[in-house]
Amino acid sequence: MAADPRAKAATLNLRRRLLSSSCRLFFPEDPVKIIRSKGQYLYDEQGREFLDCINNVAHVGHCHPIVVQAAHEQNLVLNTNSRYLHDNIVDYAQRLSETLPKELSVFYFLNSGSEANDLALRLARQYTGHQDVLVLDHAYHGHLSSLIDISPYKFRDLDGQKEWVHVVCTPISTQVSFHPQTWTTWQCLSLQAPLPDTYRGLYREDHPNPAEAYANEVKNVINIAQEKGRKIAAFFAESLPSVAGQIIPPAGYFSQVAEHIRRAGGLFVADEIQVGFGRVGKHFWAFQLEGESFVPDIVTMEKSIGNGHPVACVATTQAVSRAFEATGVEYFNTFGGNPVSCAVGLAVLDVLETEQLQAHATNVGNFLMEHLSQQKAKHPIIGDVRGTGLFIGVDLIKDETLRTPATEEAEYLVSRLKENYILLSTDGPGRNVLKFKPPLCFSLDNAQHVVAKLDDILTDMEEKVRSCKTLRIQPNSAKHPSGKWDLMFVLHLHQEIHDKMFSRFRG
After folding, report:
1. Strands of 312-316's sheet, edge to edge?
2. Distance of alpha carbon 20 from the chain centroid
3. Mean pLDDT by 10 residues, the chain (507 residues)
4. Which of 379, 374, 378 is nearest to 398 (CA)?
5. What's the pTM?
6. What share of the chain is helix, strand, coil (3-state, %, to 5)?
7. β-sheet with 391-396: strand ranges across
8. Distance between CA atoms of 394 and 177, rounded to whole angstroms?
């Protein structure tokens, strides 16, 4: 295909005229026009090479030749819907089953993660006969109306929380959390329990058993819901919450939550859309970090499953599937599981195996975590480094005591990295967590290069704005005698730090 002859400015003007402004770009003040890619690299219209640290869709690498070839060869022969017999769909289901616990033996194929989570919701409701759903605070599970309703990340800015949705979120009385623009406090609209975040959550790294403590908060949510006559259909959670800030729940948390949910008659849905297929390194699926005995009732997958091709899947048990079949209503997804999509999915599995990318994710991830932790010791703005495999978060803070999200600083840092041809982004309710979710071909040299640039930029920031080092807060200075944070002090402090630091960025 010939190179795109259109100038970047012309493309941007057309986009602004023809696409909704709600379809946002990375780096809106200076968007990057990408015209080709290979492996872990993206190339703009001028041929400049950018290192991609965030594209968890191109799981085995952009335009991987084996995946491209598989799609091309199948396209030359046949692509049609799954109402005809074809080997690809059954071969793919069999290969997927070999990666999962034996209980998860029935597969539904779809085109997107949103479709997968919507089907999981239908399956859970049909099996249990219940309506209500529990989700974690700041969760995002898809863009369909049914999923916006169970995604606090979205519904707080829209119609609000439905009566049948119970958010597992942090109570305002015990911890302050911050909106990235207004720094106002979030307040859950219904039942409340905290996100399992041991860095800035209700139960932190010094708690003797944070997994049990956080799971008991979910139990409390269930109890309150049942007292109101509500019945729980499902608990939805990303196996590693990503939009919430690259969170690593304490070991044992999900197992205990599953016990509480099942005792209440509900199902446990593991959303693996961003974290499955070997990204965590140690295991093929992120839910397996809980141990071999933990088995979700439903698993949803997309993104990495097709390396950029639109294919998704739901895996569940025979019992859940039979309850769904008992309605007598056919489930049909026109092109879910088509021969080309399944050929692509099979090729992705082949590449993961032959290139040993799961072990590679472990090795490179450990290396990156180690070197980022060294930067944490050097730069006070880095409050926490957490992750597993090539799912890593770097939590930037304004101070050590309150762990206030360094939102503006994170934005500035990401912009500076882009100037150095490194593409990184932020997540978390404070938009202050640097997220690393690169293609699994991301190398040791790539990791070393990113850390070196990060070090250079942070050093330069500290020299120019004298960040965290001179703005550290004395222990307990922001607490009442009761031990709770003084909200007025926190808001005043934020304004002071914001004025000192962000004004200098602008200057």
Report:
1. 106-110, 312-316, 298-301, 267-271, 232-238, 132-136, 165-168
2. 24
3. 76 94 90 97 97 96 98 97 96 98 98 93 96 87 76 60 60 36 32 78 95 95 92 94 94 97 97 96 97 97 94 98 95 94 98 98 98 97 98 96 94 96 95 97 98 96 63 38 35 41 37
4. 379
5. 0.85
6. 40, 15, 45
7. 382-388, 391-396, 433-436, 425-427
8. 17
Identify the helix (H) or strand (E) that includes residue 422: strand 422-423
How many residues are given for the chain? 507
Taking Cα atoms as reference points, which of 388, 449, 450, 383 lies closest to residue 414?
450
CA dihedral over 99, 104, 106, 111, signed as positive or negative: negative
Residue type, 290: E
Nearest residue to 247 via CA among 165, 323, 169:
169
Contact 348, 304 (CB under 8 A): yes
CA distance 275 to 278: 8
Three-state DSSP class for residue 405: strand
Q: How far apart are CA 170 and CA 165, in angstroms?
A: 15
Angle between helices 87-97 and 339-354 (to 10 degrees): 40
Q: In sequence order, what are the residues at sequence separation of 6 or more whose Cβ sits closer than 8 angstroms to the Cβ of residue 270?
A: 237, 238, 239, 254, 285, 286, 287, 296, 298, 299, 300
Which tokens belong to 37?
Answer: 């890619």
Pairing of β 232-238 and β 267-271: parallel
- Coil, strand, or helix at residue 383? strand
Amino acid letter, residue 52:
D
For 11-24, b where at least 16 C-beta lie within 10 A, e where not — what string?
A: eeeeeeeeeeeeee
* DSSP H helical ranges for 55-177: 65-77, 87-97, 113-128, 145-148, 152-155
Q: Residue 173: how many CB atoms within 10 A of its CB?
A: 8
